[in-house]
Amino acid sequence: MEVRHLGSGVHVLPGPVNLGAIAREGEVAFVDAGLDDSPARKLWRWAEEAGFSPRAAILTHAHADHFGGAYLWENRGLPLHASPLEGAMMEHPFLEPLFLFSGAAPPQKLCSKFTLAKSCRVQNLEPGIIQLGPVSVEVVALPGHAPAQIGVRFQEVLFCADALFPEEILRKHPIPFCHDLDQALASLKVVEEAEQVVPGHGPILTGERVRAACAFFRGHLQKIRDIVHREIAVPKTGEELVHRVAEELGASLTDLTDFVLALTTIHAALTSLAREGLAEGVVEKNRLLWRRQ
Ligand SMILES: [Zn+2]
Protein backbone atom coordinates (compact mmCIF):
# COMPACT_ATOMS: atom_id res chain seq x y z
CA MET A 1 0.00 0.00 0.00
CA GLU A 2 1.30 3.39 -0.96
CA VAL A 3 1.48 5.66 2.08
CA ARG A 4 3.35 8.92 1.66
CA HIS A 5 5.47 10.19 4.50
CA LEU A 6 5.60 14.00 4.53
CA GLY A 7 8.07 14.18 7.42
CA SER A 8 7.63 14.82 11.18
CA GLY A 9 5.35 11.80 11.54
CA VAL A 10 2.78 13.05 9.01
CA HIS A 11 1.51 10.43 6.57
CA VAL A 12 -1.03 10.43 3.77
CA LEU A 13 -2.89 7.46 2.34
CA PRO A 14 -3.77 8.79 -1.13
CA GLY A 15 -7.01 7.67 -2.75
CA PRO A 16 -10.35 8.97 -4.01
CA VAL A 17 -10.27 10.78 -0.64
CA ASN A 18 -6.86 11.48 0.87
CA LEU A 19 -6.64 10.19 4.43
CA GLY A 20 -4.15 11.51 6.97
CA ALA A 21 -2.22 9.98 9.84
CA ILE A 22 -0.18 11.96 12.35
CA ALA A 23 2.12 9.80 14.46
CA ARG A 24 3.94 10.64 17.66
CA GLU A 25 5.57 8.44 20.29
CA GLY A 26 4.08 5.23 18.93
CA GLU A 27 0.53 6.55 18.69
CA VAL A 28 -1.33 7.90 15.68
CA ALA A 29 -4.32 10.16 15.02
CA PHE A 30 -6.16 9.83 11.73
CA VAL A 31 -7.69 12.59 9.63
CA ASP A 32 -10.90 11.41 7.91
CA ALA A 33 -12.02 7.85 7.30
CA GLY A 34 -13.03 7.54 3.61
CA LEU A 35 -16.24 6.50 1.87
CA ASP A 36 -16.71 3.01 3.25
CA ASP A 37 -14.93 0.42 5.36
CA SER A 38 -12.21 -0.33 2.83
CA PRO A 39 -9.98 2.79 3.14
CA ALA A 40 -10.37 2.86 6.94
CA ARG A 41 -9.32 -0.80 7.10
CA LYS A 42 -6.25 0.03 4.98
CA LEU A 43 -5.37 2.89 7.27
CA TRP A 44 -5.71 0.67 10.34
CA ARG A 45 -3.60 -2.10 8.78
CA TRP A 46 -0.92 0.39 7.78
CA ALA A 47 -0.78 1.75 11.36
CA GLU A 48 -0.46 -1.76 12.82
CA GLU A 49 2.26 -2.73 10.38
CA ALA A 50 4.12 0.51 11.07
CA GLY A 51 3.89 -0.17 14.82
CA PHE A 52 1.57 2.74 15.66
CA SER A 53 -1.32 2.42 18.06
CA PRO A 54 -4.41 4.35 16.77
CA ARG A 55 -5.57 6.91 19.31
CA ALA A 56 -8.40 8.83 17.62
CA ALA A 57 -9.70 10.14 14.30
CA ILE A 58 -10.68 13.68 13.42
CA LEU A 59 -13.44 13.84 10.81
CA THR A 60 -13.38 17.07 8.82
CA HIS A 61 -17.01 17.22 7.69
CA ALA A 62 -20.17 15.19 7.32
CA HIS A 63 -19.92 14.18 3.67
CA ALA A 64 -20.09 10.44 3.25
CA ASP A 65 -16.82 10.19 1.32
CA HIS A 66 -14.96 11.59 4.35
CA PHE A 67 -16.61 9.95 7.35
CA GLY A 68 -18.34 6.91 5.84
CA GLY A 69 -18.04 3.35 6.85
CA ALA A 70 -18.16 3.71 10.62
CA TYR A 71 -15.50 0.97 10.66
CA LEU A 72 -13.14 2.84 12.98
CA TRP A 73 -15.88 3.41 15.55
CA GLU A 74 -18.00 0.27 15.14
CA ASN A 75 -15.31 -2.36 14.63
CA ARG A 76 -12.36 -0.77 16.38
CA GLY A 77 -13.92 1.43 19.05
CA LEU A 78 -11.75 4.34 18.00
CA PRO A 79 -12.87 7.71 19.42
CA LEU A 80 -14.04 10.02 16.62
CA HIS A 81 -14.00 13.81 16.83
CA ALA A 82 -15.80 16.42 14.73
CA SER A 83 -17.19 19.93 15.01
CA PRO A 84 -20.59 19.95 16.78
CA LEU A 85 -22.74 20.68 13.72
CA GLU A 86 -20.94 18.26 11.38
CA GLY A 87 -20.89 15.71 14.22
CA ALA A 88 -24.66 15.98 14.58
CA MET A 89 -24.99 15.12 10.90
CA MET A 90 -22.62 12.17 11.30
CA GLU A 91 -24.80 10.84 14.09
CA HIS A 92 -27.92 11.48 11.98
CA PRO A 93 -26.65 11.03 8.40
CA PHE A 94 -30.20 11.03 7.01
CA LEU A 95 -30.01 14.84 7.35
CA GLU A 96 -27.75 14.94 4.26
CA PRO A 97 -30.20 13.54 1.65
CA LEU A 98 -32.98 15.32 3.53
CA PHE A 99 -31.31 18.72 3.02
CA LEU A 100 -30.44 17.90 -0.57
CA PHE A 101 -34.12 17.25 -1.27
CA SER A 102 -35.38 20.46 0.39
CA GLY A 103 -36.49 18.69 3.55
CA ALA A 104 -38.79 16.24 1.79
CA ALA A 105 -38.38 12.50 2.16
CA PRO A 106 -35.61 11.83 -0.38
CA PRO A 107 -36.12 9.25 -3.15
CA GLN A 108 -34.01 6.11 -2.95
CA LYS A 109 -31.58 7.42 -5.58
CA LEU A 110 -30.53 10.15 -3.14
CA CYS A 111 -29.82 7.59 -0.43
CA SER A 112 -26.83 5.84 -2.00
CA LYS A 113 -23.61 5.42 -0.06
CA PHE A 114 -22.35 8.71 -1.57
CA THR A 115 -25.05 10.74 0.18
CA LEU A 116 -26.14 8.52 3.07
CA ALA A 117 -23.32 7.12 5.20
CA LYS A 118 -23.70 4.86 8.23
CA SER A 119 -24.25 6.66 11.49
CA CYS A 120 -21.33 7.04 13.87
CA ARG A 121 -21.01 8.49 17.36
CA VAL A 122 -18.60 11.42 17.62
CA GLN A 123 -17.19 13.69 20.30
CA ASN A 124 -17.38 17.43 19.79
CA LEU A 125 -14.30 19.49 19.22
CA GLU A 126 -13.81 23.20 18.70
CA PRO A 127 -11.09 25.09 16.78
CA GLY A 128 -7.81 25.37 18.68
CA ILE A 129 -5.07 23.07 19.90
CA ILE A 130 -6.27 19.62 20.87
CA GLN A 131 -4.34 16.83 22.49
CA LEU A 132 -5.01 13.27 21.40
CA GLY A 133 -2.65 11.30 23.61
CA PRO A 134 0.86 12.34 22.61
CA VAL A 135 -0.42 13.85 19.34
CA SER A 136 -1.09 17.58 19.52
CA VAL A 137 -2.73 19.23 16.49
CA GLU A 138 -4.46 22.50 15.71
CA VAL A 139 -8.06 22.31 14.59
CA VAL A 140 -8.83 25.11 12.13
CA ALA A 141 -12.32 26.30 11.15
CA LEU A 142 -12.69 26.10 7.35
CA PRO A 143 -16.41 26.63 6.68
CA GLY A 144 -17.85 27.14 3.20
CA HIS A 145 -17.80 23.79 1.44
CA ALA A 146 -19.75 22.42 4.40
CA PRO A 147 -21.30 24.55 7.17
CA ALA A 148 -18.81 23.71 9.92
CA GLN A 149 -15.96 21.99 8.13
CA ILE A 150 -12.63 21.90 9.96
CA GLY A 151 -9.05 21.39 8.87
CA VAL A 152 -6.16 19.92 10.84
CA ARG A 153 -2.81 21.70 11.07
CA PHE A 154 0.34 19.97 12.26
CA GLN A 155 3.54 21.96 11.92
CA GLU A 156 3.77 23.06 8.26
CA VAL A 157 1.08 20.71 6.96
CA LEU A 158 -2.60 21.60 6.69
CA PHE A 159 -5.16 18.89 6.00
CA CYS A 160 -7.76 21.20 4.49
CA ALA A 161 -10.31 18.59 3.27
CA ASP A 162 -12.65 20.17 0.70
CA ALA A 163 -11.81 23.80 1.46
CA LEU A 164 -9.65 23.55 -1.68
CA PHE A 165 -10.44 21.68 -4.87
CA PRO A 166 -7.30 21.57 -7.03
CA GLU A 167 -7.50 22.27 -10.76
CA GLU A 168 -7.33 18.55 -11.63
CA ILE A 169 -10.51 17.93 -9.65
CA LEU A 170 -12.33 21.01 -11.01
CA ARG A 171 -11.70 19.83 -14.56
CA LYS A 172 -13.59 16.62 -13.75
CA HIS A 173 -16.23 18.32 -11.58
CA PRO A 174 -16.61 21.93 -12.75
CA ILE A 175 -19.44 22.69 -10.28
CA PRO A 176 -17.89 21.83 -6.90
CA PHE A 177 -20.27 21.42 -3.98
CA CYS A 178 -20.50 24.64 -1.99
CA HIS A 179 -22.64 25.52 1.03
CA ASP A 180 -21.58 29.17 1.44
CA LEU A 181 -19.55 30.80 -1.32
CA ASP A 182 -18.41 33.79 0.75
CA GLN A 183 -17.25 31.57 3.60
CA ALA A 184 -15.47 29.31 1.09
CA LEU A 185 -13.55 32.32 -0.25
CA ALA A 186 -12.63 33.41 3.29
CA SER A 187 -11.43 29.90 4.21
CA LEU A 188 -9.19 29.87 1.14
CA LYS A 189 -7.22 32.71 2.70
CA VAL A 190 -6.38 30.41 5.61
CA VAL A 191 -5.46 27.54 3.29
CA GLU A 192 -3.11 29.60 1.13
CA GLU A 193 -1.00 30.53 4.15
CA ALA A 194 0.03 26.91 4.68
CA GLU A 195 3.38 25.66 3.42
CA GLN A 196 2.05 22.22 2.57
CA VAL A 197 -1.57 21.32 1.95
CA VAL A 198 -3.29 17.95 1.76
CA PRO A 199 -6.67 18.54 0.08
CA GLY A 200 -9.45 15.99 0.43
CA HIS A 201 -9.12 15.15 -3.26
CA GLY A 202 -6.20 15.48 -5.67
CA PRO A 203 -2.47 15.95 -5.24
CA ILE A 204 -0.56 17.09 -2.16
CA LEU A 205 0.59 20.68 -2.73
CA THR A 206 3.67 22.53 -1.51
CA GLY A 207 4.80 26.17 -1.54
CA GLU A 208 3.90 28.07 -4.70
CA ARG A 209 1.62 25.26 -5.84
CA VAL A 210 -0.54 25.92 -2.78
CA ARG A 211 -0.86 29.59 -3.73
CA ALA A 212 -1.53 28.77 -7.40
CA ALA A 213 -4.20 26.17 -6.56
CA CYS A 214 -5.95 28.57 -4.16
CA ALA A 215 -5.89 31.35 -6.79
CA PHE A 216 -7.34 28.97 -9.38
CA PHE A 217 -10.11 27.76 -7.07
CA ARG A 218 -10.93 31.32 -5.98
CA GLY A 219 -11.21 32.36 -9.64
CA HIS A 220 -13.38 29.34 -10.36
CA LEU A 221 -15.84 30.12 -7.54
CA GLN A 222 -16.00 33.75 -8.62
CA LYS A 223 -16.62 32.65 -12.20
CA ILE A 224 -19.64 30.59 -11.10
CA ARG A 225 -20.95 33.61 -9.19
CA ASP A 226 -20.34 35.88 -12.21
CA ILE A 227 -22.16 33.52 -14.60
CA VAL A 228 -25.14 33.39 -12.25
CA HIS A 229 -25.15 37.18 -11.97
CA ARG A 230 -25.01 37.58 -15.73
CA GLU A 231 -27.72 34.98 -16.34
CA ILE A 232 -30.25 36.54 -13.94
CA ALA A 233 -30.34 39.69 -16.10
CA VAL A 234 -33.20 37.64 -17.54
CA PRO A 235 -35.02 36.06 -14.55
CA LYS A 236 -34.51 32.30 -14.20
CA THR A 237 -35.31 29.42 -11.88
CA GLY A 238 -32.55 27.75 -9.87
CA GLU A 239 -32.78 24.68 -12.13
CA GLU A 240 -32.35 26.83 -15.25
CA LEU A 241 -29.29 28.42 -13.66
CA VAL A 242 -27.77 24.99 -12.97
CA HIS A 243 -28.27 24.19 -16.66
CA ARG A 244 -26.66 27.47 -17.84
CA VAL A 245 -23.65 27.19 -15.52
CA ALA A 246 -23.13 23.52 -16.40
CA GLU A 247 -23.23 24.28 -20.13
CA GLU A 248 -20.76 27.11 -19.82
CA LEU A 249 -18.29 25.21 -17.63
CA GLY A 250 -18.61 21.95 -19.59
CA ALA A 251 -20.02 20.01 -16.64
CA SER A 252 -21.94 16.85 -17.29
CA LEU A 253 -24.60 16.23 -14.66
CA THR A 254 -25.90 12.74 -15.24
CA ASP A 255 -28.20 11.91 -12.35
CA LEU A 256 -30.39 13.29 -9.59
CA THR A 257 -27.49 13.40 -7.08
CA ASP A 258 -25.23 15.34 -9.46
CA PHE A 259 -28.00 17.82 -10.12
CA VAL A 260 -29.06 18.54 -6.53
CA LEU A 261 -25.42 18.91 -5.46
CA ALA A 262 -24.92 21.47 -8.25
CA LEU A 263 -28.17 23.20 -7.30
CA THR A 264 -26.82 23.73 -3.78
CA THR A 265 -23.77 25.49 -5.26
CA ILE A 266 -25.98 27.69 -7.43
CA HIS A 267 -28.05 28.58 -4.36
CA ALA A 268 -24.81 29.46 -2.53
CA ALA A 269 -23.91 31.81 -5.40
CA LEU A 270 -27.39 33.37 -5.27
CA THR A 271 -27.11 33.92 -1.51
CA SER A 272 -23.72 35.56 -2.03
CA LEU A 273 -25.21 37.89 -4.67
CA ALA A 274 -28.28 38.59 -2.50
CA ARG A 275 -26.03 39.62 0.42
CA GLU A 276 -24.63 42.35 -1.82
CA GLY A 277 -28.04 43.40 -3.05
CA LEU A 278 -27.35 41.94 -6.50
CA ALA A 279 -30.02 39.22 -6.62
CA GLU A 280 -33.42 38.45 -5.23
CA GLY A 281 -35.87 35.61 -5.46
CA VAL A 282 -39.41 36.50 -6.51
CA VAL A 283 -42.43 34.35 -7.16
CA GLU A 284 -44.17 35.15 -10.42
CA LYS A 285 -46.98 33.11 -11.87
CA ASN A 286 -46.21 30.42 -9.33
CA ARG A 287 -42.54 30.15 -10.37
CA LEU A 288 -39.61 31.02 -8.12
CA LEU A 289 -37.46 33.27 -10.28
CA TRP A 290 -34.07 34.77 -9.49
CA ARG A 291 -33.44 38.21 -10.89
CA ARG A 292 -31.23 41.23 -10.43
CA GLN A 293 -32.40 43.50 -7.66
ZN1 LIG B 1 -17.09 17.32 1.00
Instruction: Give the DSSP E fraction (strand runs of 2 or more residues).
Output: 15-25%
- What CATH first level of the domain at 4-137 would be assigned? Alpha Beta
What gap, in angstroms, lies between the N and C termini? 55 Å
Spatial order of the strands forming the largest sheet: 1-2-3-4-5-6-7
The fold-level CATH name of the domain at 4-137 is Metallo-beta-lactamase, Chain A
Shape from CA axes?
globular
Fraction of helical residues: 25-40%
Low-confidence stretches: none
CATH superfamily of the domain at 4-137: Ribonuclease Z/Hydroxyacylglutathione hydrolase-like
**Structural class by SSE content:** alpha/beta
Mean pLDDT: 96
Oligomer: single chain
User: In angstroms, what is the radius of gyration?
Assistant: 19 Å
